[in-house]
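Workshop exercise sheet. Pairs work together: one partner reads the sequence aloud, the other fills in the structure field after running the prediction. Swap roles for the next sheet.
Pair: D.N. / O.F.
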Amino acid sequence: MPAKQGLTVVSDIDVQAREIDFVTRFASNWDALKNILGIMRPIEKSTGTTLRAYTTQAKSGLATSPAEGEEIPYTEFEITETLKEDLTIEKYSKATSIEAVNKYGADVAIQKTDDQFLIELQNKVLNEFYDFIKTGTLTGSETTFQMALAMARGKVIDKFNKLSKNVSEIVGFVNVLDVFQYLGSANITIQTQFGLQYVKDFMGYNTLFLLSEPNILRGTVIATAVENIDLYYINPSNSDFAKLGLVYRTDGETNLIGFHANGNYGTAVGEVFALMGMKLWAEYLDAIAVITFGSSPEPPLEPSITLDKSTAAVDVGSTVTITATTVPTDAEVTWTSSDTTVATVSDGVVTGVANGDATITATNSTASATCSVVVGTGA
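Structure field:
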């Protein structure tokens, strides 16, 4: 007797476990990042919500307190919308062929590619955030890494003071090579979570993220307050999506990502689909400090050449050495003689050929120097 329809078989359980594992790991990773960044809780939004970033300032300072009985004047603030972006649902998929499973085994062909798929989805959200914070308008320039760190933190605190808002923690973003160049041989504890490296409690920063180019260029420090960072998301388990017959596995708590796996018999591949609408956002662009540092490069030195002697004498058949000093020091020097029947020269070594006078010239790019040589017996 054949099995009844609707029976849950082993392959169904394997797929469900795979979906649960994926969304659980994704949610756990973001929980870790939220803790590092200090984000209290993700904020759910509906599809099509427009996120806005602002700059704000008092137009003419605090209004003067009125005299007794006079009308109280308003303090006028200017709030400027500087950036807006729609929060949208985004769709991604990948497929693993039956040939790949046969060749490499399920652990490699499926699990390893699922792991990388998860990382790429996470990185997409992070990379967009890195590009976003580069647009911060609290800009400045310092000469050293230490001063850039200090001033970036100071500018953020100053801005929040002016907004009469509290700052509990400051987070910073720097290039990892700048940190190690600054520290030299000193040891610090670097932590890693979510694929990110960071240092806790470093020079006034609660968390300092160590990034690489192109996420943050060398010679740049970016800082803001944790109160300025929010994580917005669209719930993939939205009932409207289910009306299309699209049911995705979610974590069940914050539902940051939807994930579905199934086999395609027509192409003999295992397909997975991800549904995600997430964005890290900062409400105030003028509460993000972007400070560059580093001395201006020295102008290139003009090519020059000097000789250790301006005159020399040498016997016929003998040699005398002329030494050249050049700028730059590794410049190539070309040696010539005005009269090779009297004296020849090679790499600064002059050989007397016959009685007479010759001028030895050393040339370095656009610069040159000369030495007058007298050749004769007993010279």
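Discussion prompt: Residues 1-13 have pLDDT under 50 and may be disordered. What would you look at next?
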